[in-house]
Specification:
The complex is a heterotrimer. Helix content of chain B is 29%, strand content 28%. Chain B is α+β, with helices and mostly antiparallel strands. In chain B, helix 6 crosses helix 7. By secondary structure, chain C is of the alpha/beta class. Chain C folds into 2 domains: 64 residues, Alpha-Beta Plaits (2-Layer Sandwich); 361 residues, Aldolase class I (TIM Barrel, Alpha-Beta Barrel), CATH 3.20.20. Chain C has 15 helices and 23 strands. Chain C has an 8-stranded parallel sheet with strand order 11-21-20-18-17-14-13-12. In chain C, strands 6-22-23 form a 3-stranded mixed sheet, with helices on one face. In chain C, strands 1-4 form a two-stranded antiparallel sheet. Chain C is globular, with a radius of gyration of 24 Å. Classes of the chains: A alpha/beta, B alpha+beta, C alpha/beta. At the B-C interface, helix 6 and helix 10 of B face loops of C.
Chain lengths: 230, 364, 494
């Protein structure tokens, strides 16, 4: 077996097997492709900066934390605090995401964070969302609620798309919910879903089936109204 | 430097638990392996294990594990116990010396039963009689600390990394149907071993990850009911709250979870009427025991285990099942290391208690 | 005796607005629209200043000072002169002005989360301020099938831990009552009638009204007791513990007479004690008789002044069958009280709450009753500190009046309130629009509630019950060991 230092030597394509809770895998990776087998530990692909990380199983907490660019694709499920403060790139999860997925994701100029969750998401999805797009598909969850409580609380930009016709439980009155038109679906969702489906080799049409709702901040209800200068 | 109990110390942690629903006894090796995976979540200042079903030959007696700082403390405690209990057996707990564990106190084990005439005069049941005696030892005999006092169970803890604590106590030599483990990351050196976890009272043991923000409200409330929080740790106060709610108020563990991790009023308001009334009642009746801030806990009890997250799920918790065995842990990897292919692996929701008990035929 | 000096500058346009606004006769119209100032009548209520269209008026402390003496201060000499002239007991209003008694709230600092647990953004995350006040039974009961039986006695449900203190119709105007009632309804909290009865026009606010039963029993009848969410038995008041009340016959006119059920022009006297309560077991009798009269459907509050032995008194109240104990501290306000009493009797609310909460815990009955703290709550951080010391909720009187215009000139006892609050003169009372007043009260309490949430969020606490009695949230500065011990807190840095 050949040993090399990926920090120094760089790599194009690499396979990491028998992962068991090792933290910080793919942290800050700028380029190349990494395949992971097993269960990688916390802070997987944090600060990811252009590289591509494929995970065969589940990821633990704080994956894609403060990610900047690139792709993290998780074939299983993700733990809590997925993609916290993500600034750009794509995070695709085929299974479920835990609590607080996509908290304070952002968009700036050509950087636009995209998070797609195939299954369902836990409570506080997209809390404080500052930009970018979160899509929850709820595959295999038909008829059930695909988000938890307090979805999108405090978001002030960006959009959460949910493949459901049900309004999330106790949605904040500072948010607006609208039905997604076919035009918007084709223009915005279709290209993202096509890419997502090709990564996991599943049918894009299945992912796009049915109606979507969108959740966005109600700009007329700004929090600054709550303050009075002394 | 102040000892834990004289000063309140915050800590972060790792927890892990294994429960065999069929009553099968497994050695401590698996739990050691599991908690060791989460080495990074501890800082070497505390580790420990709770095990159930380990003393079948003495299962009708209270098993006391006691730390002593001096022979004098031991003598005083033994005089105290001798006056109130029949001591069936006493011995040092066997340990394996390792350079990674130092400053060990004297560690003794007693199997005892209350003296029948004193028990009768006290008008207490044997659990209350024994718990009062142990609270008194911890409260008033300097240098003595009862680590655990339930039946057919025991707590093994020390200052060190959990895997080293396991070696020190030779836990691979014990066999139990239920195991929990704790690795601690205190923000301050605890000064003595009593501050490590699990914390226990009678058959109840608690391991906990997180720091609660309601601590002093909870402590001052539970101390009203005869408990004395000597260690000033979250785990201690959670244990006492659970003991009070289950043993003195007759709540089920599920109801306890609805008190300490009560749903938000907004969540309660969308339940059906009967459930809304029940949950409102528990919240209003026991409002002093609502715990806020992050926690994930594993509660061991005779014949069962409960896993619970705070209502916002501010700490991680993963559950898995394989056949008759149930696993709980702070991280998935800590389960996969001992069970590569579980039948099911999932993350319980915040405030949603997972309770597992022995199958009927396995009951002791 | 002159205390303030009124001045105007050249921007005065002689509109005479100040003349019509001054209810104390301090500014009069002279010849040719000139102004005549009677400085000795000025109370510094700031009404003329607030309404002067050009900002031409200034009220300042009179620069003529008595000769400085470190023992006999100016106020001491003034009071001697006044009493020598009149032979009267000094009458005052609002809260205590004893400057040497510390305001402990200002010496308490709050905690916040850093690293070991997370703080919470209250604007975006759930943050609960709902409080339930009432008794709790000692044990859970179950029916035969094991289901929990609801054995909780009736509770008050507050959306925010801030209520309005008792202020009677007579001491304050009907418009103030209207504003308080409407605000309480909107806020999901409670206002308190005080001891002067409940005007019929306010019956619709029943669900947010607490009616008071004091020693004078004015306007107390079956309908009154049942037109309320709770009944408060007033034993004492922080501004004048041990002292009764005296509403002069001059104010007993029209609806005040009707509501109090006292003939017009006759003085309304509240005896110092309830003459049916000479001992603690008599209190239990009154509590239970009120519960009988209201069919056990409403909680009963017992309000007492914070005096030296308030802790055992509270314990006695808790065992009397009362559901809620309301404690009014040394700095609590009043419409009229002897100055010597106001400034010298009782103890600050901070110490009283700490002592009561601790005593009830030592007696293992803290969970049985709820505690309301009042007497000098000025802002949301005072409220948070009171709750962390052990109160369930706080009650505000003076602060509520301020929201309605009061500038604390402490002249309530004159009945000439220029802001139209502590008066029955119809020309003055119409100065308060009850609807606008209600809106201002709602704004105030909403703002405080938001601030309470901010503070709780910083501490990582998302429900108010986890703050109650959570004394580790507090540290003291500039306090001695005894004060820290009574407050049950550590010193900053400890």
């Amino acid at each position: 077996m050949k040993e090399f230092d990926i920090r120094k030597d760089g790599h194009e394509e690499i396979m990491v097997t028998d992962c068991l809770g090792e933290r910080y895998i793919g942290c800050g990776m700028k380029d190349g492709v990494m395949h992971i087998k097993g269960t990688p530990g916390n802070a997987l692909a944090s600060y990811l900066d252009g590289g591509t990380v494929y995970v065969d199983g589940n990821a633990q907490d704080a994956a894609a934390d403060t990610m900047n660019a690139g792709l993290l694709a998780i074939k299983g499920s993700a733990g809590d605090a997925l993609a916290y403060g993500m600034r750009g790139g794509r995070v695709y999860v085929l299974g479920d995401a835990g609590y607080r997925a996509g908290v304070h994701m952002k968009a700036y100029e050509d950087k636009k964070s995209i998070l797609v969750i195939g299954g369902r998401a836990g409570s506080f999805l997209g809390e404080y969302l500052a930009g970018g797009i979160i899509i929850v598909l709820g595959l295999g969850c038909e008829g059930k609620s695909i988000t938890g409580y307090f979805c999108g609380n405090g978001m002030y930009a960006g959009t959460i798309y949910l493949r459901t016709d049900k309004v999330p439980l106790n949605l904040s009155d500072k948010l607006i919910r609208r039905n997604v038109s076919d035009e918007e679906k084709d223009r915005i969702l279709r290209p993202i879903i096509a890419d997502y489906a090709s990564v996991f080799s599943i049918s894009a049409e299945d992912c796009l089936k049915g109606s979507f709702i969108a959740i966005e901040a109600d700009r007329s209800k700004s929090y600054s109204q709550l303050y009075a200068a002394v | 430097m102040k000892k834990e109990g004289e000063v309140r110390i915050s800590s972060g942690c790792a927890i892990s638990g294994i429960f065999c629903r069929d009553g099968r006894r497994i050695t401590g090796e698996a739990i050691k392996k599991s908690i060791a995976v989460m080495h990074n979540r501890s800082n070497g200042l505390g580790g420990g294990f709770a095990a159930y079903g380990i003393y079948p030959q003495y299962k009708d007696y209270f098993a006391l594990h006691i730390f002593y700082e001096s022979q004098a403390a031991r003598e005083e405690t033994e005089r105290f116990l001798d006056k109130r209990f029949d001591i069936i057996n006493l011995s040092k707990i066997p340990v394996r010396q390792t350079p990674k564990i130092s400053d060990a106190p004297l560690i003794w084990r007693y199997f005892i039963t209350p003296l029948p005439h004193l028990l009768q005069d006290s008008q207490l049941d044997e659990d209350e009689y024994t718990s009062r005696a142990t609270i008194r030892i911890n409260d008033s005999i300097g240098g003595a600390y009862v680590v655990s006092c339930g039946k057919d169970m025991g707590v093994f803890k020390a200052v060190g990394y959990p895997e080293d604590v396991a070696d020190f106590y030779r836990i691979e030599e014990y066999e139990g149907y239920s195991w929990t483990a704790h690795g601690r990351y205190p923000t301050n050196t605890p000064g003595w071993w009593a501050g490590s976890h699990p914390f226990s009272l009678l058959d109840l043991t608690v391991v906990h990850n997180g720091e609660i923000s309601s601590y002093d409200a909870n402590r001052r409330a539970v101390e009203m009911y005869g408990y004395s929080c000597n260690l000033l740790t979250d785990t201690e106060v959670i244990t006492y709250i659970l003991d009070y709610l289950t043993r003195k108020q007759g709540l089920s563990l599920k109801e306890c979870s609805e008190v300490i991790a009560a749903p938000f009023w907004t969540t309660i308001s969308i339940k059906d009427e009967e459930e809304r009334k029940r949950l409102s009642y528990l919240r209003k009746m026991f409002s002093s025991f609502l715990i806020t801030g992050p926690f994930s806990i594993l509660v061991g009890f005779r014949g069962g285990m409960m896993a619970l997250n705070d209502r916002l799920k501010l700490r991680s918790l993963v559950a898995a099942e394989k056949g008759n065995t149930v696993y709980f842990s702070s991280e998935e990897a800590a389960i996969r290391v001992i069970e590569e292919e579980p039948d099911r692996i999932w993350a319980p929701r915040g405030g949603e208690a997972m309770i597992v008990t022995l199958d009927k035929e396995a009951e002791l | 005796m002159r205390r303030y000096r009124i001045r105007k500058d050249e921007s005065c346009v002689s509109c005479l607005r100040c003349v019509s606004e001054c209810s104390f006769g301090a500014i009069e119209k002279g010849k040719d629209r000139t102004l005549v100032f009677h400085h000795d009548k000025c109370t510094d209520c700031q009404r003329c200043v607030s309404f002067c269209p050009t900002g031409a008026i200034y009220i300042t402390e009179d620069e003529n000072r008595f000769r400085q003496n470190s023992v006999f201060r100016e106020d001491d000499i003034r009071e001697i002169l006044l009493q020598a002239e009149t032979g009267g007991v000094l009458l005052s209003s609002m809260g205590a002005s004893g400057k040497s008694v510390p305001i402990y709230f200002d010496k308490l600092l709050l905690n916040a989360s850093q690293v070991t647990n997370p703080s919470i953004d209250p604007l975006r995350e759930p943050m609960e301020t709902a409080v339930f006040l009432g008794q709790r039974p000692e044990e859970v009961q179950r029916d035969q099938s094991g289901r929990i039986v609801d054995n909780l006695p009736p509770h008050l449900e507050l959306r925010t831990p801030i209520m309005f203190s008792a202020m009677s119709y007579g001491a304050i105007s009907l418009n103030v009552h209207k504003a308080l009632a409407a605000a309480a309804e909107k806020l999901g909290t409670y206002w308190n009638t005080g001891e002067g009865g409940l005007h019929e026009s306010l019956y619709p606010y029943k669900e947010n009204t607490i009616v008071q039963v004091a020693s004078g029993r004015f306007g107390v009848h079956g309908t009154y007791l049942n037109t309320a969410a709770a009944i408060e038995i007033k034993i004492g008041q922080g501004a004048k513990p041990g002292i009764g009340g005296h509403l002069t016959g001059k104010k007993i006119i029209g609806d005040v007479s009707k509501t109090r059920m006292v003939p017009e022009g006759l003085d309304a006297i509240s005896p110092a004690p309830h003459h049916d309560i000479y001992s603690i077991e008599d209190l239990a009798q009154l509590v239970m008789s009120i519960k009988e009269a209201t069919h056990y459907t409403k909680p009963v509050i017992v309000k007492a002044a914070a005096v030296h032995n308030i802790a055992p008194i509270a314990s006695g109240i808790a065992r009397s069958g009362a559901d809620i104990i309301s404690i009014d501290g040394y700095r609590g306000g009043t419409g009229a009280a002897p100055k010597r009493i106001r400034d010298n009797v009782g103890i600050p609310i901070e110490l009283a709450i700490a002592a009561v909460d601790q005593r009830l815990r030592e007696e293992r009955i803290r969970d049985r009753v709820s505690i309301i703290a009042s007497g000098g709550i000025r802002n949301s951080s005072d409220a948070v500190k009171a709750i962390a010391l052990g109160a369930d909720a706080v009650s505000i009187g003076t602060a509520a009046l301020c929201a309605l215009g009061c500038h604390i000139c402490a002249s309530c006892h004159t009945g000439r309130c220029a802001w139209g609050l502590a008066t029955q003169d119809p020309k003055l009372t119409e100065r308060l629009d009850p609807e606008k007043g209600a809106e201002r009260l709602v704004n105030l309490v909403n703002a405080w509630t938001r601030e309470i949430k901010e503070i709780m969020g910083g501490m990582g606490i998302n429900s108010i019950e986890a703050l109650r009695g959570n004394r580790m949230a507090l540290r003291g500065v500039d306090l001695n060991a005894k004060e820290l011990e009574v407050l049950g807190i550590g010193y900053a840095g400890e």
